Amino acid sequence: READIEAVEKQNEQVSAELAEREKNQEEREKTFNQTVKRYDDKNINVEQIANNLNGMRPEASVAILVAMDDQTVIDVLRKVEELAAANGSSSMGSYWLSLMPSERAAEIQRKMISKPESLD
Questions:
Q1: What pLDDT score does 71 carry?
Q2: How many other β-carbons are positioned within 10 Å of the β-carbon of residue 94?
Q3: Which of 34, 40, 55, 120 is the most buried (most CB within 10 A)?
Q4: DSSP H helices in 1-121
């Protein structure tokens, strides 16, 4: 009887250790998820701020800044500009900015915009 009790206690200890490990792994996954969401939110806030800043500038100055950015950031900013214009009921400067860019760069950005979905959600 004592041997059976010890065996059951040992099994319970193993189950307890396994549950503790699973809980720790779950907490790590949750922490990683929360960090990813925060990075996404922070990036979205920054892109919106850039879009607002560029909207307040002369188009030539905005284009000079956009040309210096990497393609993905330009795409994100142009999409945010479109979104803000739609929300405000105004026209977007995005197409005009593209027309002021070097034609090869504008074509490359538009090609990438076609192949990239609106969101990865």
A1: 94
A2: 23
A3: 55
A4: 2-55, 59-68, 71-88, 94-100, 103-115
Query: How is 32-43 classified by DSSP, letter by letter?
Result: HHHHHHHHHHHH
Rounded to whole angstroms, the Cα distance separating 76 from 47 reads 7
The 3-class SS string of 51-71 reads HHHHHCCCHHHHHHHHHHCCH
Chain Cα centroid distance, residue 12: 43
How distant, in Å, are the alpha carbons of 1, 7, 10, 24, 28 from that of 20?
Answer: 28, 20, 15, 6, 12
pLDDT confidence tier of residue 26, bands split at 50, 70 and 90: very high
Per-residue pLDDT tens digits for 61-79? 999 999 999 999 999 999 9
Q: Token pair for residue 31?
A: 């922490």
Residue 54 is encoded by which pair of tokens? 């560029």
Rounded (10°) CA dihedral 105, 108, 110, 116: -140
